[in-house]
Design goal:
Layout (H helix, E strand, L loop, with lengths): L5 H17 L5 H16 L4 H21 L4 H32 L13 H17 L8 H9 L1 H4 L7 H9 L5 H38 L3 H32 L17 H7 L2 H15 L6 H19 L3 H27 L1 H20 L3 H11 L11 H18 L3 H12 L7 H18 L11
């Protein structure tokens, strides 16, 4: 079940909200826990037991970590290690066993399916255990609130990665208000529109140019593939994050932001402060800083960064293109830290163009597991052995210019800022907001009726 489906919105969500708000406050977290288990079991019933075992491992070992963290650090570290290994073993087996088996020369396990969302909920569980060992959070005394933290359906499948210390108080007590609920509905519809109207349309255009490139490759066509993939992944993933944050608000939760207009970044360093913020924060807090960060000398700092980016790439998928993608960004981050960053600050327009091109080609690596195809696209982008434009490409591009312009504007804060200024200047416009919002929702419903299944990119991670 995905958020961008009729059965989720008009079936699961409506039913869950109804049950949630008719029961007493003390029963609302248990309702969410059961609803989240049903949500997960809808598509992955056999793996729900795996998730429950993962929760139990962290929950039980958490008591021992808390008990000994002040009196016996060595013993507390042992229980922390057991908790982390217990959860990581599931992720390593399901996600990476076949990758290593094939590359070593062994037979892979047939029909080994990656449990949906395991990369996200494993990281959430690990953050609880580590923060507990550090003394940054109290131990989870009640199983159902802790289980709800892990299984909470708004952010279960693809994040944002919510750390326990950010929501532990909200799990026990939260203040559901009409204004918070309304802002959640608004955020959900906005994310739904980003995903269905812009993200899916950009994906379809990229697919069109990819098929055309198989018969008549061209520079212009390849740039269109890169541009549309760049739009697609942003609107798909940020749209999902908007929906998750909106759903959280409907149930009284306030999740951290996951995106901050990454395509207006002026460097790759700036980009990664704005893109998938919760994942970057996780790797910084639990990998980079414990390794010494940049406090251990420049060379050692670059090595620490290499470790983080290798793991970041590999976390996204068990294939060589993801590892290459992580190394690719590490190279540019090192170059910026070494000398390029200072130069980019002096040339803002060029810095922005540079960032978009580097990020755009990074998505080409991300999307294609065939490394030879990535090399081919790299040549086509610069015109090596390729015509500038294939037959019909120019006309197709002209017809797509309005859509591209809309996508480009939607990647920036300017439409939102402009609308807010107009509402400030003309207060009567505020009355039109609900109408515009529900009109947008009806368009999204039409898209869902036309396309019965529209999964998220990060659904498989």
């Amino acid at each position: 079940m995905v958020f961008s489906s009729l059965i989720f919105i008009f079936g699961f969500l409506v039913s869950t909200l109804f049950l949630y708000y008719i029961v007493p406050k003390a029963a609302r977290t248990p309702v969410l826990f059961v609803a989240s288990l049903i949500f997960y079991a809808w598509g992955e019933p056999k793996y729900i037991y795996l998730m429950i075992v993962s929760i139990l491992i962290a929950y039980i070992f958490g008591f021992f970590i808390a008990k000994y963290r002040e009196t016996n650090k060595r013993l507390a570290k042992l229980f922390l290690t057991l908790s982390l290994l217990g959860n990581l073993s599931f992720l390593l087996f399901f996600k990476y066993f076949n990758f290593f088996a094939v590359n070593i020369g062994f037979d892979p396990i047939k029909d080994l399916v990656l449990p949906v969302g395991i990369s996200f909920y494993t990281f959430q569980i690990m953050s609880y255990s580590i923060d507990l060992y550090r003394g940054e959070v109290p131990p989870a005394r009640k199983f159902i609130p802790f289980g709800t933290y892990v299984t909470l359906f708004p952010q279960l499948i693809a994040g944002p990665i919510v750390r326990y210390k950010d929501v532990c108080d909200q799990l026990e007590s939260r203040n559901e208000t009409v204004s918070l609920f309304a802002s959640g509905v608004s955020r959900f519809i906005t994310g739904l529109a980003k995903k269905l109207i812009l993200g899916d349309s950009a994906a379809a255009i990229a697919e069109y140019f990819e098929r055309a490139s198989e018969f008549e490759p061209s520079v212009l066509g390849t740039w269109m593939i890169m541009l549309c993939y760049t739009f697609h992944i942003y609107f798909d993933f940020s749209g999902y994050s908007d929906m998750a944050i909106g759903l959280g608000r409907m149930f009284g939760f306030k999740f951290v932001e996951n995106f901050n207009y990454p395509y207006i970044a002026s460097s790759i360093t700036d980009f990664w402060r704005r893109w998938h913020i919760t994942l970057s924060t996780w790797f910084r807090e639990y990998i980079y800083i414990p390794l010494g960060g940049n406090r251990v000398g420049k060379a050692h700092g670059f090595l620490n960064l290499a470790t983080v980016w290798f793991l970041t790439g590999f976390w996204h998928g068990a294939d060589w293109n993801y590892i290459l993608w992580g190394v690719y960004f590490w190279v540019f981050l090192v170059i910026e830290k070494a000398f390029l960053g200072k130069l980019l600050k002096k040339l803002p327009p060029l810095a922005h163009i540079y960032s978009l091109i580097i990020v755009g080609f990074g998505w080409m690596i991300f999307f294609h597991s065939d490394l030879s195809l990535i090399a081919q696209y790299a040549k086509q982008l610069v015109g090596i052995g390729t015509a500038f434009a294939a037959s019909g490409t120019g006309y197709k591009l002209l017809s797509l210019l309005p859509f591209i312009a809309v996508c480009a504007l939607a990647c920036t804060p300017y439409p939102k800022q402009t609308f807010e200024r107009l509402c400030t200047r003309f207060p009567k416009l505020n009355a039109a907001k609900p109408l515009l919002l529900w009109g947008l929702f009806l368009v999204c419903v039409a898209y869902m009726v036309d396309n019965s299944f529209s999964p998220f990119l990060y659904y498989i991670f």
